Amino acid sequence: MTIHDDERLGALNRREFLRQCACAAVGGSAFAATFGQLQLTSAAVLPPGDAFDDYRAMVCVFLFGGNDSANMFVPMDTAAYDTYAASRQNLAVARSSLQSVNATNVTESYGFHPSCSEMRSLFANGNLAVLANVGTLLQPTTRQEYLDRTANLPPQLFSHNDQTAFWQALRKTSGRKSGWSGRMADLLANRIPSTEQQFAMNMSLFGTNLLQTGGTSVPYNVSSRGVTSLRGMGGRNAREDRRKRAFDKLLDASRTSSDPFIREFGAVQRRARDSVERIGAALDALTPLNTTFPTSRLGEQLNMVSRLIQIRSTLNVRRQVFFVGMGGFDTHGAQLARQPDLYQDLSSSLNAFYAATVELGLQDNVVTFTNSDFGRTLTSNGDGSDHGWGGHHVIMGGSVDGGKLYGTFPTLEIKGPDDTRGGRLIPTTSADQYGATLARWFGVPDGDLNSIFPNLNNFTTRSLGFMG
Question: Model pTM?
Fold first, then answer.
């Protein structure tokens, strides 16, 4: 909430002031996630000796717009590369410029995009894995089933909004929407009793998102600069001090209100205020890491994630999921000019974050993984690619069984066995399988995975094996 001038504040009576604060708390996405329903946020505050007595964190890096990952990880064997080049035409990356790697579990050769040198090194050192051709699926789907229209498909394929939502929710939603990390938070909150003040298991550096929204939990929003607090009440001058005292008096008065909404709203705001102060103070007291991050938006988000992980003991949390985002991947035009900068940012930011986890001694406790709306078409539209379906993703961390290629690498052939039409590849691995493999490492029992990943039972393989 921003209060623009004292005159307007003075004109507000108690009821109107609380009403406007309530609107602020449930209105703006960042404010709502930070303050609204804080009493319902699910944190893993765990007693010593519990099955969750270690610390684990997952970091989702969402590549908004639809990453053309066919150029991020490319086959290098002559026949496979020639097929790739024939399909990609003017979008193909020159074979001689690829950053070659030898995956230890396959005989074929592959290469990262020339701007992904850091990712290549992480892969070669066994700290990063590639998951091939993963996407949104309700069940295994063949090309013939797609063409015959007999396949049960996710809603609105190739649509940014719908596919982003499905990646995060993994179900055709009706009624209250929730994401798989939110449902995971709900589950762990129900399994882990605690009488202590709880902090959110899910924390977002990229605004409110469906992935982290559960039935009884919402993500706690933090900016790259730190916690979000009520502006105009920072105690920087006498005017702000008066404003803060007035607000505190209203919150204290809410304790005895006959209106249950006002009582609960006041309780939420008091806990939110205390949480902001506690997190802010802990961040301010940190000794900076030696790791240098890129100054890009993604680099700054991951830098803040590393700082939030540093204060895990102060906040008494044992399980956390962080959400960060990066835009610009909707490369309908100028793709060859735009991809180098996108991949350089992604690669250098991931590398810096991994180095930070090593500096913290937590590289085995933190797993970072990518998501995106969809892959893109193999075919060129003249200057870029269009909305596709399956794509490749990377998973990074000391607990990752890295240096390997997981899933089934597709045939990069127009009208080939994996092509719907126009070079839109049918995923050979589902997003449910991807998420479930991460959730098992996080500590979710196998018997509970179906409640979080509703399509998982439709696939034979429940764990993809990339977590060591």
Answer: 0.88
